[in-house]
Amino acid sequence: MEGKKTFIDKIWGIFASVKFAIVIFSLISLTAIIGTILEQRAEPARNIKILAKLFGESVAPSLYSTLEKLGFIDMYHSWWFIAFLILFSANIIICSIDRLPRIWKLIKEPLKPMAAEHFDTAPIKREILLKGKPDKVKEVVIGAIKTSGFNYEESKEDRGYQFYSQKGNFTRLGVYITHLSIILILIGALAGITFGFKGYLNLPEGRTAVAVRYSPPSGPSEENTIERIFNALDASWGNISKASEMLNIKENSIKDTLRKDGIQPLGFSIRCDDFDVEFYENSNTPKKFISWLTVIEDGKEVVKKSIEVNDPLNYKGITFYQASYGMIPNVPGWFILRVTSKSGASEIKRLNFGDKFTIPGTNLEGTIKDFSPALSFDNQGKPFTFAEMMNNPAVFIDFKEGGKEKYSGWILKRYQITGRLPEGHIVEFLDLWGVQYTGLQVRKDPGVWIIYLASLAMTIGLFIAFFMSHKKLWVRIVEDKGNTKLYVAASSNKNRAAFERKIEKMISLIKGKQEGGK
Amino acid sequence: MSSSVFFGISTMSYIIAMIIYITYLAFRNKTVGIAATTVTVAGFVSQTIAILIRWKEFYDISGMGIMRSVPLTNLYESLIFFVWCLILGYLIIEFKYKNRSFGAFVTPVAGLALAFIDLSGMSKEIHPLIPALQSNWLLVHVTMSFIAYAAFALSFSTGLMYLIVSTEKKHQPAYIFWTFTLGIFLTLLITMGIDIMTFRVAIRPEEFIKSYLFRSSFLNRSAAIQIISWISMAAVIFVAWKFGHVLKGVIEKFNISSEILDEITYKSIAVGFPIFTLGGLIFGAIWADQAWGTYWSWDPKETWSLITWFIYAFYLHSRMIRGWRGKRVAIVAVFGFLAVIITYLGVNLLLSGLHSYGEMK
Ligand code: HEM
Fold first, then answer.
1. Whole-structure pTM over 0.90, yes or no?
2. CA torsion sign, B114 to B119 to B123 to B125?
């Protein structure tokens, strides 16, 4: 019947087949399982340990080296996993091209009246007798068809009429929207990898950065050049073209030099004004990590925003995420106190360790004698430090009046009540500033919008594919001994049971109307 | 009243409902059937109240917005929500198909799961959310994932029942498959029960899985107990294989045709798949993107969600291949739910990634 298939036709046939799709599904799933057992991109020792647990000490090292050669230690970036994804895409694209013309025809084809004898073989069929001649019941039938949500066309038959209608033709495209969205996601991911970067920045309180580290250095770096570039970038607030003018080096060669050193210039500068951890009351569970950031261009502050986990800062396509934090070793920092006298006079003090301050309007003098990042008291009431991070920062202040010792004690940042002095003055410990850094994940990903768009398309496509259908309906009314015989035929490409119920409803509507009309 | 009273009432109701459903199967008496449904609905209502009370408690403690206090933050709460979805799904099916036979299967699962949560001493403490978890995307992600898991659980049980009623001979691959699956399932449930009885520790379930699960059997320090455990598993599987036809006889009494089983399996997956795609994969990716700056990082939990998704895609497409409809696709549906269990519980056993609720490094 059909001519000899060429080689190309055969390949096309394979790629257009659903069988090939499930082979690809299996290949991706099975290899991905291995990828979840082995720790990806980890040091050899860790994976050898895992393999030793599973297969014994003796075979683990050789097994590891085989797996490493095959790319399983970084398998999602291995050539063969990428090849699977390419085959997968080719499968979806070719399968769609193969089927779309036929589907398109089904969508576009106008519905024709159905020959009387075909009513018997329709997937859904009904037959009832109505009182009165076709011309009389016609209006009732049309009304019921309309109520069921169908627009109809009409054709005259020799002893009656036929009404026919279809809807939801375009829902046949739902599956193809879903399939297309998968391709779009892969394109979006590719765009992100090609045109974006992912970097990391540890930014101390009060410092400004013009670049981030995004990978380990790849080539030998020219220390002097790098330093000159950084000086120029600092001077131009991160503006790369200005720095290139200053140095008389091409912009691209600045970027290339930095890239070799694993550094990505931002094009502007960013400053961390402050970082803080908020805790839940009476608990060591952190509630918020907050960094107050300022973007600076040409010496002007253009954006100020406090970021939190789940609430990043975006500027010129580069996004800054709150990712971690830590203490900077060996820096003294500034103690920020708010001192309010009983009379209400209030002052902010920036102090060094050991500095003295007076309560406004009095000669009560305080001295910062001690500091703990995480103060707690043991059973005997003796103070101790329970963590290195600022979990419960506290200062020990010694108060004197006219040179005479008065009292002393700990004032805790998280418990302002500890700063109430017996006379009614208040000393609040607001912050120890300049000792913490905020760890920012810095990302540019121009592909992310494609991914979001594709996700939306996929959701819509799936919804259409599973919950909507292409429905066809034919209704004939034919005179039968002074009365009317009503024939219904219908079909639907999905979820026939639901459509059948709808037809049932339409018929009972017709019956009801007819009886009511008498 | 506290939430645990209402949880207790719902646990009891589901167990009583199970007994009534089984009685109903035996006598097919309409009044008994209505009683079974009534008790189930009562348990469901009580569980709903319990969840709402816990929500309120959490809200009062956390001092955050209502949506930040949804009780879906740990294994304890998520298991309860899973049971809630399962019962809801079942009640919908009972209503739509006018068939109470599944009740005898679903209510014991619900009752046992709740009793298991209670007995295991799973920590019921309310922990306020660490910053990474304070996200509306995460909230819809978790909620929708569990709704999808419940739909997949239904497809699993109907898929398994399909295999049970449609296999005849003991050497048929499909028969061996379902008896094997059932045997492993039973063994794992029993060994987990033994773990709980042996260790009786009230710690966070994540900890329990990491440090205690299977320590009294497969992972015991004594090699002898390990070997005995494996032998027992083989024995359970053998018994399941040997006497599988008895179960078939029981199910056949229920008057559920294999067509209906196939249809419910497909319908549950047709509901679960889009919800899982949107809630499990897409919203999860959006959350990761907002919180960490990476929408996809191939960590084990993410990868296992993807594997689950691929298996269900496999199911949907294999139905279109001639000769696959029937037993083969039912096996795929069973595999799909095994992947769900690994995604949900197993990954925490293996490795910790972003998802094991990693605090900030
Ligand atoms: C993970 C990727 C994929 C997803 C999520 C997906 C999703 C879907 C869904 C939801 C349906 C509707 C199923 C139903 O109504 O029961 C479907 C149908 C279909 N898919 Fe896929 N699919 C994927 C990959 C593929 C691939 C690689 C092929 C290549 C052959 C393919 C070919 C088809 C065909 C031919 C149909 C039937 C179309 C029709 O009814 O007109 N799919 N797909």
1. no
2. positive
